[in-house]
């Protein structure tokens, strides 16, 4: 399952990434395999989304979220 | 001032780094440039408890030593480039105690550069409140560095931090975090050997960053490129491995030293605020309400202080007229310098209010929510959510805004943002708009609360935003993308604005405006005074001679005679001649040669318009009656028709010209500096001038 498929309030655990370039940036921001993520909100126009990860809020576009595969 | 030690502040964005910097250095700071690059370098001095002085350098906030933007790339250069003697003796790493995991990534990278480190554990009060327990002694022992819990906002723990800085070791004692050599054994060893680099992590960073590091020579960079090929070094893969190894170290460290409350957190206040502020409907309503409030505030709050400043200058000019003997000198001071100066200073209240409100929006964390809400719309028109900050900043001034586009990682998004930011109604246009609106729009309320003049101003601002969006949309199809864009951004917790910071920003920006714009305006005022006080050849002498003849001296009162002579002289002065030369070009826009003079002088800076108008029309005012510029312009009549010069059509046509034309030398310079190519500012100047002419032409003929 991809992170972009979760609804607001749902959680998942990061398993792997489908895109190396994106994964490097996400991992630096504390979004890395084994980490729990929760969708905290979706922007008014449906994109981007905000997730809770590593104890803070990170916003990313839906496309970027779709490169994150959950367990 | 000579400093005994050099200390660099490093930390993630939103960790209170700049608050700490302000506390350590007080107002004793200056902004300069890092050599070779156009990144602001904030430095200040701090007295240490042992009597020594430390020079504090504030490095740009970054999440990692791997730069994602231009600003961030300076951090590694400063810490590693030994050739310029810039390397600090000590690095203070600021960690947000309530968000340690992500913050520690940067710490582990800095620590591995083996520069002495002190950790400032900021927002310790916030993390304690959240129930996070940190065993600070064990934490410090595991890292091998002094760790000082502080709260920069509440000003606690600062003395202890100063002590730690004063008594820090001059050799790096921190524990290794990860095994660096094993990440890329061959290439690290070879770079260490060939480039005389002792530290394995510096060697690894050279392999990663050699293409962007300005301190490496081309031969060095090429050699590293060659080594990468030999060792089949893959930068992104190596970085991924390294980041995972670092987080393993961090997780172990936090497991031993930090306990978090078990129970899932109640909904935080920040989350509750977000539910409203980023709501589907209310989100945008609130955003537009805030913008409307800002414009109303600029107008209504500034009215009283502005009239005070105006009165002060009228009083000064009257005083100077009494004290100084009549002649060219008093004319230069009263009509040149003082008239020009009052044109600048009168806008301080408006600029201060605008900067204060924008800094509140940034400080509270609201600005990043605007970015979050607007990203989708902005992407459609070829921009990026992060373009919102430069565009809103553009309401204040395009120059710092264009510099702030460095946070946009994507080249195409950044270029488009730079190209359209000068279209946003900046504070320099504000004087022009306020003056012209006050001249032709009645000061009346409609629907109880909306002032007509305020609405007209809001319309000009809305127009500027729309034009920026449309131009961006067009450019989206012209420019070709160089790399893919992304939008991975922290949404910081909402915080109360730091009022000291707001006041400091207000003071700082107003000062910069007065000094920067003031210099230009006074220079232009003096040049203009010379151009309008002297004419080519013997034209002035001929005028004097002509009006000395009895047919004039006998029939006219001395008062009206001086007036006629003065306006004849203006028309025949260098400025007048020049205005007449360009009049055919600007006539279709409704402008006469006097406005032409103002337009030309405004190409240095827009706000010069007001000063120029003051200088030009001071010729016609009665000598014993000193008026404000607005009154003078209001009374200005076309000598042929006797009709007022500033009709609704002319005023709005002028406003259109100022809305679109690139009349700002500083912006042209900064666009060149940021793009490193003259074609960018040239293209920008050309398209904006064309837009300005077309818009003025249409508006003038529509309203005429």
Automatic annotation (TrEMBL), chain A:
InterPro entries with a match to the protein in the record: Fe-transptr_FeoA-like, FeoA, FeoA_core_dom, Transcriptional_repressor_C
Name of the molecule in the record: Ferrous iron transport protein A
Keywords for this protein: Iron
Organism for this UniProt entry: Mucilaginibacter rubeus
Residue span(s) of domain Ferrous iron transporter FeoA-like: 1-71
UniProt keyword annotation of Cytoplasm present: no
Gene Ontology MF terms: transition metal ion binding
TM helices/strands, residue ranges: none
Superkingdom classification of source: Bacteria
């Amino acid at each position: 399952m991809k992170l972009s498929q979760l609804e607001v309030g749902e959680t998942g655990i990061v398993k792997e990434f489908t895109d190396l370039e994106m994964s490097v940036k996400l991992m630096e921001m504390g979004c890395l395999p084994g980490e729990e993520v929760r969708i905290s909100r979706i922007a008014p126009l449906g994109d981007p989304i905000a997730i809770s990860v590593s104890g803070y809020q990170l916003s990313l576009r839906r496309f970027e979220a779709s490169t994150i595969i959950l367990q | 001032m000579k400093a005994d030690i050099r200390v660099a502040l490093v930390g993630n964005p939103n960790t209170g780094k700049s608050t700490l910097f302000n506390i350590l250095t007080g107002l004793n700071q200056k902004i300069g440039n890092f050599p070779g690059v156009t990144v602001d370098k904030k430095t200040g001095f701090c007295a240490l408890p042992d009597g020594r002085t430390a020079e504090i350098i504030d490095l740009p906030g970054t999440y990692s030593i791997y730069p994602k933007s231009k600003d961030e790339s300076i951090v590694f250069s400063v810490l590693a480039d030994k050739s310029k003697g810039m390397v600090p003796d000590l690095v203070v790493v600021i960690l947000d105690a309530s968000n340690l995991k992500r913050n520690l990534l940067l710490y582990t990278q800095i620590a591995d550069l083996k520069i002495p480190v002190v950790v400032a554990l900021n927002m310790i009060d916030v993390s304690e409140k959240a129930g996070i327990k940190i065993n600070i002694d064990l934490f410090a022992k595991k890292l091998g560095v002094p760790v000082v819990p502080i709260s920069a906002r509440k000003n606690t723990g600062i003395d202890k931090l100063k002590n730690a800085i004063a008594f820090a070791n001059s050799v790096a004692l921190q524990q290794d975090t990860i095994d660096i050599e094993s990440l890329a054994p061959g290439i690290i060893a070879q770079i260490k050997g060939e480039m005389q680099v002792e530290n394995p992590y510096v060697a690894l960073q050279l392999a990663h960053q050699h293409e962007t590091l300005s301190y490496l020579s081309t031969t060095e960079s090429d050699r590293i490129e060659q080594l990468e090929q030999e060792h089949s070094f893959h930068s992104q893969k190596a970085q991924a491995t390294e980041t995972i190894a670092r987080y393993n170290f961090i997780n172990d460290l936090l497991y031993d030293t930090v306990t978090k409350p078990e129970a899932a957190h109640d909904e935080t206040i920040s989350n509750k605020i977000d539910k409203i502020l980023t709501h589907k409907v209310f989100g945008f309503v609130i955003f537009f309400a805030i913008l409307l409030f800002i414009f109303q505030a600029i107008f209504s709050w500034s009215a009283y202080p502005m009239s005070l400043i105006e009165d002060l200058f009228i009083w000064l000019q009257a005083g100077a007229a009494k004290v100084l003997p009549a002649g060219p000198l008093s004319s230069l001071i009263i009509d040149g310098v003082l008239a020009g100066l009052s044109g600048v200073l009168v806008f301080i209240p408006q600029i201060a209010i605008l900067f204060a409100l924008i800094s509140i929006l940034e400080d509270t964390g609201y600005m990043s929510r605007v970015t979050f809400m607007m990203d989708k719309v902005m992407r459609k028109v070829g921009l990026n959510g992060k373009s919102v900050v430069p565009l809103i900043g553009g309401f204040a001034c395009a120059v710092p805004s264009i510099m702030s586009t460095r946070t946009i990682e994507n080249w195409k998004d950044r270029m488009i943002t730079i190209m359209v930011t000068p279209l946003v109604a900046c504070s320099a246009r504000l004087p022009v708009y306020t003056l012209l609106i006050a001249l032709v729009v009645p000061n009346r309320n409609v629907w109880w609360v909306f002032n007509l003049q305020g609405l007209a101003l809001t319309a000009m601002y809305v127009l500027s935003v729309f034009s920026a969006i449309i131009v961006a949309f067009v450019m989206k199809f012209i420019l070709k993308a160089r790399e893919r864009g992304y939008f991975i951004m922290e949404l910081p917790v909402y915080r109360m604005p730091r009022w000291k910071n707001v006041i400091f920003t207000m003071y700082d920006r107003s000062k910069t405006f007065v000094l920067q714009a003031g210099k230009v305006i006074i220079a232009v005022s003096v040049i203009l005074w010379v151009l309008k006080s002297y004419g080519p050849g013997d034209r002035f002498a001929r005028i004097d001679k002509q009006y000395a003849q009895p047919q004039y001296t006998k029939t006219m009162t001395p008062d009206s005679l001086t007036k006629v002579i003065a306006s004849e002289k203006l028309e025949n002065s260098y400025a007048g001649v020049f205005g007449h030369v360009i009049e055919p070009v600007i006539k279709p826009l409704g402008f006469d040669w006097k406005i032409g003079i103002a337009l030309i002088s405004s190409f240095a800076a827009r706000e010069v318009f007001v000063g120029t108008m003051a200088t030009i029309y001071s010729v016609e005012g009665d000598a014993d009656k000193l008026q404000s510029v607005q009154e003078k312009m209001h009374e200005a009549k076309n000598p042929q028709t006797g009709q007022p010069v500033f009709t609704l059509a002319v005023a709005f046509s002028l406003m259109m010209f100022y809305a679109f034309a690139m009349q700002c030398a500083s912006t042209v310079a900064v666009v060149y500096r940021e793009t490193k190519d003259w074609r960018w500012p040239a293209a920008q100047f050309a398209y904006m001038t064309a837009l300005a002419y077309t818009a003025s032409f249409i508006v003038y003929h529509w309203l005429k």
